[in-house]
Amino acid sequence: MDLLQAEAIADLIDANSKQAVQSAMRTLRGQFSELVHHLVTMLTTIRVSVEAAIDFSDEDIDLMADAKVEESIEETLNQISEVYAQAQQGALLKDGLQVVITGIPNAGKSSLLNALSGIDSAIVTDIPGTTRDLLKEEISIDGMPIHIIDTAGLRTSDNIVEIEGVKRTHGAIETADQILLVFDCTAPEQDVDKVLQPLNLAEKSADSIESILTRCTLIYNKIDLLDNAPSKDTILYKNKELSKIHLSAKQGTGIGMLRDHLKTCAGFRPTEETAFVARERHLAELKKAEKLIKTSLLQLSKGSHLELVAEDLRLAQNHLSTITGEFTSDDLLGEIFSSFCIGK
Ligand SMILES: Nc1nc2c(ncn2[C@@H]2O[C@H](COP(=O)(O)OP(=O)(O)OP(=O)(O)O)[C@@H](O)[C@H]2O)c(=O)[nH]1
Ligand SMILES: [Mg+2]
To answer: Which of 9, 15, 180, 220 could form a disulfide with 20 if both were Cys (CB 3.0 to 4.6 A apart)?
Structure first.
């Protein structure tokens, strides 16, 4: 059993959906390890040719061309991106999506949390400022966990409890994968600047605005009051396409549309039969290896010294071997095994 499979045991214990169990089982059976080994083998073959070309550079034969090194590197890159895409699905099944519900008081944020989770976990009243603290619920969409946070409505206040609640809301917005900005569609002013106003974009840096808009979906709530049917469309704002979903949290209409939208935002493809559980650590190592292999290809096309190409390939292989634990540091092992809960 390698490190990947050992991690899969912990993921199996933590799995909270049928799909998560199945994907942990696939990793435990060695499906992910096999793909990583295959990539390592491909790299080893390439490295043998490159090292031979360095050692026998005086000979009259072109070892690099004979071994089709460039083509093999390109093929390895293709395979890494395929493995990455599969691993990403597995990581989504394990870690899911962090979603924050925000907006002005009384827009229907807590009602939306209740509609999505199917339970009355948040207090709903017609008094603006009902929710003061962050309230977390977890739901599952086709096996992908969605961690939803309901927040205190965004407004200026001199109440110390509410000020702290609003501060926490802004903190949750910073870290969420998706921001659902809820707006009462019966409000007199409907333009997008008005809808986005609670996010205080004017006070933020360009990077921060870009990051928020990329993650933001506008929820036009309370369509039942206008007798409208649920719908989805987009608007262009500061060169960003923002999704708009019109729904009724109270009646539950349009909630299915929102669930599908969250699935799309996460890039989750639940029909992926081959998904195996994966962690952020694995994705990061695959990306590092991919970057180094791309650099090696660039060095090769520039006609750089083969020693540089060889070094990039060697480092890339180390990153891949870190995934399976064949190349690792004690620190990493300590970190991984600290998450095992013995006796669970
Ligand atoms: N008609 C209608 N009323 C809704 C809808 N969603 C929420 N409401 C009502 O709007 C009021 C406020 O709802 P909440 O869910 O508490 O709103 P909130 O955004 O969480 O409010 P705060 O916690 O105070 O910021 C309540 O009276 C809800 O019943 C909806 O889709 N349709
Ligand atoms: Mg609330």
So the answer is: 15
